[in-house]
Amino acid sequence: MLRKKTFLFFLLGLMVMLCLAVPAWANGPSIGPVTPATVNINQEFDVNVEVNNVINLAAVEFKLSYDPNILEALSVTKGVPAKAMVFKDDITTGLVWFASTITNQADVYTGSDVVAVVKFRAKEEVGSSTLALSNTVLGYWDASGTGAIPHNILPAATVNVVQIVVPTVQTNAATGITTNSATLNGEITNTGGENCDQRKFQYRQQGAGTWIDAGVQTGTFGTGAFSFALTGLTEGTGYEYKAMAHNSANWGEGSVVQFTTNSEPQVLDININLNPAEDISFTRPLTITGTATGPGADNVAWQVEIKDGDVVIASHTPANGPNFTWEYSPVEGLPIVGSYSVRVVATPEAGAPVEKVVPFNIYNYPLKITDLNIVNNGATHTLSGTVTNLENSSQPVVGICQVTGPDGSVVFLEPAAQITVDALGSQTIVFTFNTPQAAGTYKAELFIWLLNDGIRTVGTPKDTTFLI
After folding, report:
1. Which terminus of the chain, N or C, has fewer Cβ atoms within 10 Å?
2. Coil, helix or strand for 13?
């Protein structure tokens, strides 16, 4: 205990003898204050007194001067060495006097850190205060003993006391408005005394109660414009928004600006329906139905055309109105099978004409052969085919079977007798032929036609192949 007290008294004496700053080298140990550049009226803040590049630091003393008209010193607490004992922490008008020392050599500090923290309060007067160190002493304690550490006193620091208020923000008109997006625009016109640390927008649908944050940014922002591309909006809907910026005083808000998202332009729309969807013939007419919706639909002028490629083969002008129905029957002179189209032009009283083209196929006879099969029984071959699309169940159907050999020559040709219609309205025609021909691939073809007051309509031929 006696040794600790002796060392403490020695340091006290050392500090008295070294009350003047000791000249030092450029990059050697130093001590100085670190302060915020700007504080608000009535704001409490800390000033750190820091040492740099010290070795075996055992004792610290300094006097810190300030302008008592601008600042009020509230307290001073020690930093490093962590186990130092404070024996001087006087606060007087315009001056803080601090001194500390360790009492055990093992508690020395080496490095760069805060040796004391002085808490201040800015008074209610805007101005600047210089904070300067004087009478600084740094003492060491190592195996060789104790002594003074030569050091630099760093330059004085200045604290500016300002009256920080919320930022002034301007909300500008939205740009780039589409059906579901818009660019929000704002501007910080005055930071309120310090740079803003956040800026953002808030938006909502007009009439809604809750604001939604958008484009939140964190950083350091002075005066100037900022924007955010807002997406996910609803078509043809009114929105309102405001630009905002934040500093230590709070959020500043711009005025509320409104905008409305665009709507898709309303145009006439037409729907065309064809029935039946295939196998149109002069016995199976095509029913065309057109319906108009949208502006001007109540009094649409219609024009309907049946086209074979670019050639118009039939046309019709329905009465004006929101819809029409037209039954089209192909003439017998058209090609047996063909791809055609329905072209419909709808013209409203005001606005541009609307055109739609719908394809369909003409099958210019009612008969079709399905399920054509060859059954072998030794040298006997039976060809069977089912005829459909009859106009009525009592129509007789005539058929001819032709068989050609591998070299293309006809080896069988025979007409069929009339066959009774089955319960489904179809007729089955069967040909049996014996062809003692050479081995190879043969083709069997079935040709049919209707008999109704003579030959009326030829049906679709059908063929299949078989091996002998």
Report:
1. N
2. helix
Do 240 and 219 lie in one domain? The reply is yes
Going from the C-alpha of 255 to that of each of 71, 168, 225, 242, the distances in angstroms are 37, 10, 15, 6
Q: Which of 320, 334, 392, 326 lies closest to 363, judged by CA?
A: 334
pLDDT, one tens digit per residue, over 28-54 is: 999 999 999 988 899 999 999 999 999
Residues 468, 249: Cα–Cα separation, whole Å: 102
Separation between Cα atoms, residue 325 and residue 331, nearest integer Å:
19
Among residues 135, 162, 189, which one ends one of the domains?
A: 162
Same domain, 254 and 284: no
CATH number of the domain encompassing residue 184: 2.60.40.10
Task: Give how many domains the chain has, as a whole number.
Answer: 4
Q: Among residues 4, 122, 8, 132, which one has the least CA distance to residue 68?
A: 122
Structure-token pair, residue 318: 């329905």
According to DSSP, the β-strands at 145-148 and 257-260 are unpaired
Question: What tokens does 74 get?
Answer: 């509230």
Same domain as 289, residue 147: no
Beta bridge partners of 304: 316, 344
Nearest to 91 by CA among 65, 123, 125: 65
